[in-house]
Amino acid sequence: MKIEALEFCIIGGGIGGLAAALALQKRGAQVTVLEQAHELTEMGAGLQISANGMAVLHALGVVDPETDQGQKSHGTVLRDYRNGRIISRVPAPSAGPTFYFHRADLLSLLSSAAKNAGVDIRLGARVTNVRKHPNEAEISLSDGTRKRVECAIAADGGRSEIRPILNGTEAPVFTHQIAWRATIPWSDRCEKPMATLTMGPGRHVVNYPLRNQSMMNLVAVEERSDWREEGWRLRGDPGDLRKRFADFSGPVGEILAGVQDVHLWALFLRPVAQKWQNGRVAILGDAAHPTLPFMAQGACLALEDAWVLGRSFDEQSGVKSALAAYEATRLNRARKVVAAARANARNFHLKGPARIAAQSILTIAGPHLARRYDWIYDYDPTV
Ligand SMILES: Cc1cc2nc3c(=O)[nH]c(=O)nc-3n(C[C@H](O)[C@H](O)[C@H](O)COP(=O)(O)OP(=O)(O)OC[C@H]3O[C@@H](n4cnc5c(N)ncnc54)[C@H](O)[C@@H]3O)c2cc1C
Questions:
Q1: Residue of 265, 258, 249, 158 whose CA lies nearest to 217
Q2: Does residue 165 form part of some domain?
Q3: From the CB of 154, is ligand 1 less than 6 Å away?
Q4: Which of 40, 102, 156 has most ligand 1 atoms within 8 Å of its beta carbon, as the pocket-test mutant?
Q5: Please, which pLDDT band fits residue 231 given cuts at 50, 70 and 90?
Q6: Which domain does 277 fall in, by range?
Q7: What is the DSSP code string of 210-237?
Q8: How many domains does the chain have?
Q9: What is the arithmetic mean of pLDDT over 20-48?
Q10: Is residue 221 part of a domain?
Q11: Ligand 1: which atom is nearest the Cα of residue 46?
Q12: CA of 85 relative to ligand 1 center, distance in Å
């Protein structure tokens, strides 16, 4: 069956859902995005999109390779928390630079591209259930309406309510990691902007510039056991943030001092899903593979998923075989990247002698460190 004859519903208008909608619509499908929120917004925070994710944004025509709209990165500086001492400088990966985007900007680029391609984006459309029929997927919405399409893709995030339909109930588990996120106005310009990773026992801070260096994005992560709520977007107290990272000095101290408004993410995870599709319904992005943010790959993986999903419909002759090919191509890659991010949770937060030993290794090996993750960044799903 030709893709032009197929109607798709994408559940969720985040980065994964919009990219998937675009990848399918550009191939000739008729795509509707159902997003529960009443507007497409993202909180003020940054996203690092590495070469593997940028390849998809270029191939989808979302970002022009000649005039990349994000902030180009020249690598990462690793610092020690106590005095801000530089432990190492990790150059940009050989696959190409990472770009720093304001989330709202990337979402807006994706939604404009999707709309221009003809995707129908419906806001305030909350999906409550999806049922598989022999040749269709039936989608139920909270307003009582139903819609039948040839294929439904759930890109409804880390707490996906559609994923259990394929995988049974798996409650997200608290990882004992809390991420504080903020952006602050910034005026220092440097010729070669870089991210900074400041590491301390049980905590780390990542900061990088956004929007032509007019803003600094901050993610401060701490290990904590005393969390009871599964909040995704809780407002935090900047004073509390400063207290918890009071012993972090060096440049990061100045950034922490400037925080006026901060949000807290308690990091909950489910494992990478065993089953990604049932022949009519598939999951994509965080719904399929929620990850800790310590490789900055969650959105990049969602972009890769989107491209591979679209391509699977080029290469296969029916919905069932296309979804099976999509799952087969993506599963191991997602598992490996998610495991790498989990390992970094340990590496960033080392204590005592292990920390000192790791710093010595980083000082020597830092410039070559990016190569360790070449397999992540070199992967270009579009070729
Ligand atoms: C602290 C932190 C830092 C990060 N930094 C990076 C980074 O630098 N680089 C990177 O690549 N990744 C990063 N990530 C990960 C990245 O944010 C996610 O992987 C990515 O946003 C997932 O996109 P998604 O489209 O799968 O899901 P989401 O962005 O969660 O979107 C899901 C959408 O589905 C909608 N929805 C949910 N349920 C329903 C329903 N029932 N009906 C209709 N709509 C529904 C939601 O409203 C939402 O719009 C970070 C994550 C965190 C927590």
A1: 258
A2: yes
A3: no
A4: 156
A5: low
A6: 3-53+103-171+271-348
A7: ETTTTEEEEEEEEE-S------SSEEE-
A8: 1
A9: 92
A10: no
A11: 8
A12: 34
